[in-house]
Every structure is written in structure tokens, then in C-alpha cells.
Write a structure and sequence with these properties.
This protein has about 250 residues and is of the alpha/beta class. It has one domain: Alpha/Beta hydrolase fold, catalytic domain (Rossmann fold, 3-Layer(aba) Sandwich). Strands 1-2-4-3-5-6-7-8 form an eight-stranded mixed beta sheet, sandwiched between helices.
């Protein structure tokens, strides 16, 4: 019988951080020995710290000697106690991530801190990085530079895909017209790496490249063959490790 593979969450400690709207659980795990620094790892819409695309990022950081702090942000369908998924917004996701980032900086002020995010988690960390010039680096996976990118992708999928997101998250849908991370990225001076799925239908390759190109300090860009919006597997893990090496992490 094959022994089930352990998740990074099996070694993580759960903290309850008091957010402005409600408590936010934050899962924290460290490597063996003294950490090189602490990374805030932000999931996307309907994401969670244990999902494969997030777990792979956490494991890459732990393998590189970093402490990982990954919150369960509000209004995720993957976290039943986080509030209604219908209430997710770009602005709310950024605000909740900013509150956890402030907590991370207060907890580990003497060490290096970095930012990582998947999907609209990458949208959020772009905004955090703009106000955090001392951040060691930024790692963005499947990153939308704007809500319009996601809107165009839904339009390409057809009316049913548009109706789905309009029904599931009406305010989020409205924000797709105006949500924009490009001005923040242009102010973010920390080194940036982007890893994306070459077959991503929500963030086509040209849009992931636009996110990378907006940074004044882009260091690494990789597209994992045959992977979609939530990449997984060995090739993804190797790309993450290469990205961290390129960032000096």
C-alpha cells in the first residue's frame, strides 16, 4: 500500500489573525534550521493554502529554506468558514492580503520578507509590493495584470462562462472592468519572477507576459508546458525552484 503524501500543512501551525472584517486563519511552517526569511503566500479566488498549486509554492519555499505564511482569505468557496464566495472582490482580496502582510511584517520584522501569489493573489501582491520597497522579491503564478484580462478570457469562453461569474460573484464581475495592477507593478522595485501554465485559458501567455513586462525588475519568466491556470506536478515544481534561484531566494 502506498503511503499518502503529506501536505506542507501537516507541519504548519495555525494562527488566528484578527482582520478588519473577521478573523483570518494563517498557516505558518518553517524549514529545518533558521529561516532565510518569511514569504506571504496569497491564494486566488476560491483558493486555499492546501490546494495543489499553492502547496507546490509553499514546498518550494520550504525547500529553499524560507518560512511560509499562507492565509485563508475571506470569501473563498474552498474555505467554508470564510464567508460567502459571492462577496469576493478584487479590492477586498487586496485589503485582506494587506492586513496579513502587516501582521507578517510585525511578527518577523528582523528577517527578510517576500511576497508570492497565485491568480488574483498575484494581483494582490503586486499592490502590496508597490508599497513595500524592502520586500526581498515577488513570485507571481498565473498572474492577471487586470480584471479586464479575466473578463476577455471569459468572453472568449462564451456567454455561459460570463453568466457563471456574474451569478457567482456579481461585485467581482463588475470590478473586472476597472481592477488594474499595472500602475502598482510599475512602482514595485523588488525582483519579480513569473511562472504560468502555457495552456492557461484564464491568463493566456501574452497576459502573463504583460504582468512580467510591467515590472521594472523582472528576473525570471517561465511557462510550464501543458499546464493550465492551477499548475501542478514535477515540471511545475522544477520551474518554481528555478524561479526562486533566479530571485536569490
Amino acid at each position: 500500500m502506498t503511503t499518502p503524501r503529506k501536505s506542507w500543512l501537516d507541519i504548519a501551525r495555525r494562527f488566528e489573525m484578527q482582520g478588519s472584517q473577521s478573523p483570518i486563519p494563517v498557516f505558518v511552517a518553517g524549514p529545518k534550521g533558521e529561516p532565510k526569511g518569511t514569504v506571504l503566500l496569497v491564494h486566488g479566488r476560491n483558493g486555499a493554502p492546501g490546494q495543489p498549486q499553492i502547496a507546490a509554492i509553499a514546498e518550494a519555499y520550504l525547500g529553499s529554506g524560507w518560512r511560509v505564511a499562507a492565509p485563508e482569505l475571506p470569501h473563498s468557496a474552498a474555505s467554508p468558514d470564510s464567508g460567502s464566495p459571492a462577496e469576493i472582490t478584487f479590492a477586498g482580496h487586496v485589503q485582506a492580503a494587506a492586513e496579513v502582510w502587516a501582521w507578517v511584517n510585525a511578527q518577523w520584522s528582523a528577517s527578510r520578507r517576500a511576497l508570492a501569489g497565485h491568480s488574483i493573489g498575484a494581483f494582490a501582491v503586486a499592490h502590496l509590493a508597490a508599497g513595500s520597497p524592502a520586500a526581498h522579491h515577488i513570485l507571481a503564478v498565473s498572474p492577471p495584470i487586470s480584471g479586464r484580462v479575466l473578463l476577455r478570457a471569459r468572453e472568449a469562453m462564451g456567454p455561459a462562462a460570463l453568466d457563471e461569474v456574474r451569478r457567482e460573484a456579481p461585485t467581482y464581475f463588475d470590478e473586472m472592468q476597472t481592477a488594474d495592477a499595472e500602475p502598482a507593478l510599475k512602482r514595485a522595485v523588488s525582483p519579480l519572477a513569473v511562472v504560468t501554465g502555457a495552456a492557461d485559458g484564464l491568463i493566456p501567455l501574452q497576459d502573463a507576459r504583460a504582468y512580467f513586462a510591467a515590472s521594472p525588475n523582472g528576473r525570471f519568466f517561465a511557462a510550464v508546458p501543458d499546464e493550465h491556470h492551477c499548475p501542478a506536478g514535477e515540471a511545475y515544481g522544477r520551474m518554481l525552484a528555478a524561479a526562486l534561484a533566479a530571485l536569490g531566494a
